[in-house]
Specification:
The complex is a heterodimer of chains A (322) and B (101).
Chain A lengths: L5 H5 L7 H15 L9 H16 L1 H11 L41 H6 L23 E7 L1 H6 L1 E12 L5 E12 L8 E4 L15 E7 L6 E3 L2 E8 L1 H6 L1 E7 L2 E7 L8 E4 L12 E7 L7 H13 L11
Parallel strand pairs in A: 1-5, 7-11
Antiparallel strand pairs in A: 2-3, 4-5, 6-7, 8-9, 10-11
Helix pairs in contact in A: 2-3, 3-4
Chain B lengths: L9 E3 L3 E2 L1 H8 L3 H9 L15 E2 H17 L3 H25 L1
Antiparallel strand pairs in B: 2-3
Helix pairs in contact in B: 3-4
The chains are: A alpha+beta (322), B mainly alpha (101).
Chain lengths: 322, 101
Amino acid sequence: MKFKDYYRVVGVAPDASLDAIKNAYRTLARKLHPDVNKQADAERRFTDLGEAYEALKDPAKRAAYDQLRAGGWREGQEVDVPTSSRSFHADDAGGVGDDGFGAGDAARFSAFFQSMFSGRGQGARGGPGRQAFPRRGEDIHHPITVSLEEAYHGGERQFQLRVPQIVASGGVVEVARTLNAKLPKGMVAGTRIRLRGQGHPGPTTEENGDLYLEVELAAHALYRVDGRDLAIDLTIAPWEAVLGAQVAVPTLDGQVTATIPPGAQAGEKLRLKGRGLPGEPPGDQYLVLRIAVPPQVSEKSKDLYRALAKEAAGELQAQVGA
Amino acid sequence: MDDPLPIGEIVIATRSYSLSQLCAVCGVHAERLIALVATGIVEPTGTHPAAWRFDDAAMHRAQKALRLHRDLLLDLHGLALVLDLLDEIDRLRTRLARAQS
């Protein structure tokens, strides 16, 4: 059994008053709550904090803990936990504390806590009347980043989760688990994909929570994304803008031919309907026109340009603020 | 370490929950959820509790609200503000990430 230094977790001296412990706990709980703190280990740290608070806020538990601690144990050291001669009341096992501050789910506390404070009734969440009915296992939310191509075509992904599992002794350990997930087509930023029953364990497997994958789109070198719409910059030559042209452009579904209308201006957006991310309705792909001038031209070209300049003098001239 | 699990069933989450179904999912009595709706923390469709339907987003928001209420002792009005601010932070983070990419 690995010793846990509860005073260190809460951040108080071993002789701290109960009020000091309560205040320290509340301040940390606000910072570490997984709904507020997005770091990967927030949930584990919050559970650790809840466990430390449960142990220290009850004078009887604190006394038993202090007695063990007097042996000079440090965090992580292997220690034999004495079987407690008094059985701690099931209500003390965790869940909503008497001051209303929830300590997280007692069933997730460490084996060290479970042995110190008697194994009886540890899995139960508080006493009668504290819960409406047995809870379904909680859901797990896991962000995944997908490329635009995966979002468009769908794909397969294998990834690892650390999930709690109830072991024979009734305690809870974290196991690494590998999951294969098929990703559907037509994902956008914020799409949730549900894997039934892969969340936290419930009282039965039917009542396991679900695993929700929350999709984030990776930035793409070529496409900009706005909801289901995509945009790319399309650079064309001046004569293509003037005369119009057929241009090959990439889409997520392969190359298509886009028609540039005559008289196209820089900054104009051409819309390829339905070529964005799939959905009801599918998004569009926009081509944002840029007109580039060739950096070097032959003498012959220059002559042609000069002739053109003379011819087209009336049609367009350099202007400020146009 | 477990063997890789078989390919999970994927469903794009579009379920809708009635009030009693949401109570079962969240493990609370109806009064608690009715209070969340009254404060505007979750917004079901439907005109009265028997006709309410909560979508997946509302379900998650309700669960989040209940967790924060339980764990941080936030009262309902404080909770409403906290949830809105957390959403705003998420939106800003996304925009920032896009702008930096």
